[in-house]
Design goal:
It is built from eight helices and nine strands. The protein is an alpha+beta fold and 256 residues long.
């Protein structure tokens, strides 16, 4: 997909927070939520109006009035071209600032792209731990946005969140951080499983004979168990939780 570009016609009003500009889209598709480069500065596209109506996007050749955020808006000049910063070009601080606004789901970066950036950053052992934890926060936010953006099975959201949290606990240990309490995480996951270990094992041994819907359910249970197994070494003062997790330990191998 081509990168969106906006050409400025005029700045109609502006202050230190941003302003209203008349622009024409000269390339790609401009969407609310995108970030545009003006030299070293970054401007957020927060609203688009065409013909007096609020719209979500602007295609090449179309003109509109747009609401931009950023003090640089006041210094834009006629004919200046603003280029959208692609999702992969967003710095961590940019993404954190963007997420802090609780942007609509139609905004970019795409939730799956955001999730990919977050997971990659938290897994990059060349980065300081503090930076990796900040990327972990982005990853968790992206998982939640993906769940709201796509129609998915409720367990899929729990699986994704548990995977990120378990990774953070395994890498940085339990505590008040993003991964949280491993005992609490395991209890949450155990509550989501609607089978006993014996029932799951019996179905797992004969999974090839089951309908596809049931096979998918067993696979989701296995993914939940994977996260529990990852944090099992960190379980502390909750022996009941540890016993419950251990009861599932041998079941994973027979699940599809």
């Amino acid at each position: 997909m081509s990168i969106a570009e906006l050409q400025v016609y005029s700045v109609e009003e502006a202050d230190v927070a941003g302003g209203l500009c008349a622009v024409r889209c000269i390339g790609g598709v401009a969407r609310t939520g995108q970030v545009y480069a003006a030299g070293d500065a970054r401007l957020g596209l927060r609203g688009i109006k065409r013909g007096g109506q609020r719209v979500a996007s602007l295609r090449a050749g179309q003109a509109a009035r747009v609401r931009l955020t950023g003090a640089m808006t006041a210094l834009l000049t006629r004919g200046q071209v603003l280029t959208a910063v692609p999702p992969g070009g967003h710095a961590l601080a940019d993404l954190e600032a963007w997420l802090a606004t609780d942007p609509p789901l139609a905004d970019e970066p795409h939730p799956l792209t955001l999730r990919s950036h977050g997971v990659s950053g938290m897994q990059d052992d060349a980065l300081p731990d503090g930076i990796r934890l900040r990327w972990g926060r982005v990853a968790l936010a992206a998982v939640d946005r993906t769940a709201a953006w796509a129609e998915r099975h409720p367990l899929d959201h729990a699986i994704d969140r548990a995977g990120v949290r378990a990774y953070l606990i395994r890498q940085f240990g339990p505590g008040p951080g993003l991964g949280g309490d491993p005992d609490g995480l395991c209890r949450e996951l155990l509550d989501l499983i609607d089978l006993t270990p014996a029932q799951a094992a019996a179905e797992g041994l004969a999974w090839r004979e089951l309908p596809r819907r049931r096979i998918r359910h067993l696979r989701r249970i296995k993914l939940l168990l994977n996260s529990m197994a990852a944090v099992r070494p960190h379980l502390g003062g909750a022996p009941d939780t540890a016993r419950a997790v251990d009861a599932w330990a041998g079941v994973r191998a027979v699940l599809p």
